[in-house]
Amino acid sequence: MEQKNKTPLLCLVVIFLGLCLQLPFQTINNLPVHQRVTVGERLNLNLSLPKFLAPHCRYTVDGMQPSNFGLNDITPVAATPGRLDVQIKLFGFIPVRHLTVSVVPEIRVIPGGQAIGVMVESEGVMVVGRSVIIDRQGRRHNPAAAAGIELGDVLLKVNGIKVETESQVRDLINNLGQAGKPLQMELKRRQSRVTYRTTVKPIYCQETKRYRIGLYVRDGTAGVGTMTFYEPRTKSYGALGHIISDLDTCQPIELGRGKVMGARIEGIRMGKKGLPGEKMGVFRGDADLSGNIIKNTNCGIFGKLTQEPKNIYRKDALPVAMAHEIKEGPAEIYTVVQGEQIEKFNIEIQQVHPQGRSEGKGMIIKITDPQLLRKTGGIVQGMSGSPIIQEGKLVGAVTHVFVNDPARGYGVLAEWMLDDSGILPEQVSKRNVEKMTILALKLGYSLKI
């Protein structure tokens, strides 16, 4: 009888402990599995655990457990670059979290803000639409659709000939159609990145008076954006903060060739609720700012400049903040709203999402500067790439606007942009603990419960 009376009490205790620990362990589980820190900086492993659990959590760093190494009391600081394998265990034997920490040298860059013209030529030509062909008898055809070609596919070769421009593809199809030859086409499917081949027979189009296969294609795009940073030592730059996609298919453009150049902002179309605004600019095409485009990623475009930009807001290089250093609160952006003059405007970082790497959306920002709101209505197209500065560090770049609230939008984290640019090493060689100097630093903060 006594045992039965204790059972409900034990169940209540277990449920109570489960509720108490649910949020803390969710916090632990949401920690990124990979973290970067600069040399001499402490690891950001501040876990919101109850006070009674904190003394029972231990770290091991590359399998090493210092005797005075405890949660919320001492945290590791790496004195040299390298890669650390960090494990957090409860009571020293229950695995709680495992993450890899890359220790990198401090990176400093010149913040941008310049208006730039961006010209991109795709690899091959992209399929952006399909159309029906009406032959001499008035019958309707679409041989490309019948062959399984989809929007967003990239046409690479026709009968073994590499294609690069819209006009080249048009002439090839017409000439081979006149000769009565089918087209052996090699394409790449964007979603799977798999190359496939198909055969298409051109049909004479009564409307255009030439042979066609029922596709619309595009070989590139151009537009105005903003440069985010420039690294003088390597002459590397990052810009836009988001991937360049085709306007019709919304599919990312497979980069073939591309270049950036200086631009001048001639006017602003104000942003309104439901209608994003836009910077209206012209390409300058002079040697003041020019470079190539090597990468087109979810975090921006990257390449090398032929010379250091002359039009800069500040000459001193700023350190780049790692993801865990970014805070909610006031910040600034550099951007151009008229001519070529870079100006500084106030914003607020409202949320930070370090887990949003796949989409390049690492923070939510809000324009708070009355002057910028009067000039643009908020975030507008062409502002993408405007550097975000917080507490003397480059923390990210403006990327997207909320259509229903043009004063707010997304930003990409600067760490991600540096990673894609190649300035930050993708891999930091792992070394033995004996060769890695680990320091300890007293934190002196209290746990939140």
Automatic annotation (TrEMBL):
Its EC number is 3.4.21.116. The gene is spoIVB. Gene3D superfamilies: 2.30.42.10. Pfam families: PDZ_6 (PF17820), Peptidase_S55 (PF05580). SMART domains: PDZ. Residues 194-433 form the Peptidase S55 domain. The keyword Nucleus does not apply. The lineage of its organism: Bacteria, Bacillati, Bacillota, Clostridia, Eubacteriales. It comes from Desulforamulus hydrothermalis Lam5 = DSM 18033. Residues 106-191 form the PDZ domain. SUPFAM superfamilies: PDZ domain-like. This is SpoIVB peptidase.
